Amino acid sequence: MAFWGKALKADLQKLAENLGVEVGASATIIEIKKAIQAIPNYDEEVDYIKELLETLKATRIEEEKEAKRLEEEKKKLEREEKRIAEEREEKRIAEEREAKRILEEKELKNAFQLKKLQIELENKSRPSETIPMAKPKLEMRHLMQKFDPKEGDISLYLVLFERQARRVEINEDSWVSHLIVLLPYEMSQLIARESEEVSNDYSHIKKNYFEEWLKGLEVKTFAELSDLIVTEQIKRRVPWEVKEHFIDEWADIKSPEVLSKRLDEYDSVRSLWKKKSYSGNSKERFPTWKAKSPIESKALPVKREEHGAKKSTTNTEDFEKRTVRCYKCGSKEHIRPNCLLLRNKESSAIVNHLFEA
Prior knowledge:
0% strand; elongated; 357 residues; mainly alpha
């Protein structure tokens, strides 16, 4: 029969047991089938046997599924127990490490306190000495800009340097080392030439620099020094474009009379050049201009041009009528740089400031 084909040995053994047929455990599927078919009234009970076999088969399948589910749950439970055990172990190890760290910190702290007490006892046993508190080390290059010979005044720069050094309480023995960093290469070479005995003497370095400056300019008398100071004060007030005009001889000018003469000559040439540029006729100034016929002139709006020409003529006449005067005393005989009032006032003030410094 067809329903025997898919039956397993276990199903047939169960079927034989329910039908009261005795079969051995070592019996084969064919032997079990023959034993079941040999029961009385088999043909009449075949439908019942078939239903019973299907029921036993379904029961076996359900039992296998349940067993498989239980096995999976068991494995899942084992995995969960393993995970919990690992977490507990990790937690235990972490707690042991933390306890060890706390113990080490405590031991280190105790050792530090013990060392501190030992030092305090040693200090108490020694005679009391005043220990100054260490102050933060400051560099002058962080407090001041580098000196620029073209823009700055070395005497004023040194005064500012000394004030800053005293403010941050830098030892005077190290002033020279701080100053070298702030000076240009050419100026620092003068300090480098000094002997080792006086290389850290700031007063000597400042005096030597002043003497080298005078020596380079060939200043030998007090009168020449006074003229040089006045000349330097005038030079500082001269515009940069004028300095560029005298760039080749600017450093060699050390007399206020010579400097005033050079500036007067420059101003005269500049004034003549301006007058010449304004006094040229219209054809020379505007070579592309051409006369127009009366008809063309009427057709063009010439009022603005006439007004502009009239204004230009007026400005030229006013410029030519201007008289050169001294801005200090109002005299027509000299200009401000040659004014005796200004020279006497500045020379006395600068000389006093130099010797006070």
